[in-house]
Amino acid sequence: MFLQRLNPSVKAVTIIVFIIFLAMIFEPVTPLLFLMWTIFVTFIFGKVDVKKYLLYFAPFIIFALGMFWTSIVFADTPNHPDDAIRFFGIDFPKESVLTALALTLRILNVAALSLLFVFTTNTVHFILSMMQQLKLPPKIAYGVLAGYRFLPMLKDELKLIHDAHRIRGVNQARTVKEKWQNYKRYVIPLLASAIRKAERTAMAMESKGFTGDKHRSFYRQFKIQKQDFIFPVLMLFGFMFSYLIAIQIG
């Protein structure tokens, strides 16, 4: 799909820029329309599973609704009835409600933009692109990649330790306290295994000539091409259209 083929660094910078733009908007119309545009771009130009997307987006919706309710509940009492909006039989200041709505939609926009990047970007390609386009030091980049690769390995290692304890007849935890005691028992062997893997990784990198030099060659080359500028233009069009509609509405 189109979004998967874009340069990850250009995509990341574009998303950060529009998050900054949204932070300067204090009315709800622009964030609402831009949220709809972002979700539209994600599903039309990116191969994203709807159920998985909704599963990740749901916690942000709950958090945003909590933010909205908290903001209007603790708002000041309206001085004039004409400047009030009624919710559940209670009058709230119109300005406070619009500000709360703008903050809520801003949270949902940040979530939508973040999910667009996460679901359409390969993590390894993103790190390599940051080294080549954004000049991220290789020591930091490969350290992040190594940590990213270790996470599923640590999960498997934890399962092996758990199975080893079961074979040796260790009582299975039933209460929260017993589970906590079990995890404390797993920490030492898990840490020892992680240290051994880290040492092997460091030795392998040194044996292959890794020095952390910025001027190095790459097997996978990432370049900024003409198609990479389509995404910023596409998002800018959606943002400007939303902003103009908000001006027309007043």
TrEMBL record:
Signal peptide: none annotated. It is a multi-pass membrane protein. Its main location: membrane. This is Putative HMP/thiamine permease protein YkoC. Keywords: Membrane, Transmembrane, Transmembrane helix. It comes from the Bacteria. The chain crosses the membrane at residues 12-41, 53-74, 107-128, 229-249. It is found in: Membrane. The gene is ykoC. Pfam families: CbiQ. GO terms for cellular component: ATP-binding cassette (ABC) transporter complex. It comes from Compostibacillus humi. One of its GO terms (biological process) is cobalt ion transport. InterPro entries: ABC/ECF_trnsptr_transmembrane, Cobalt_transport_CbiQ.
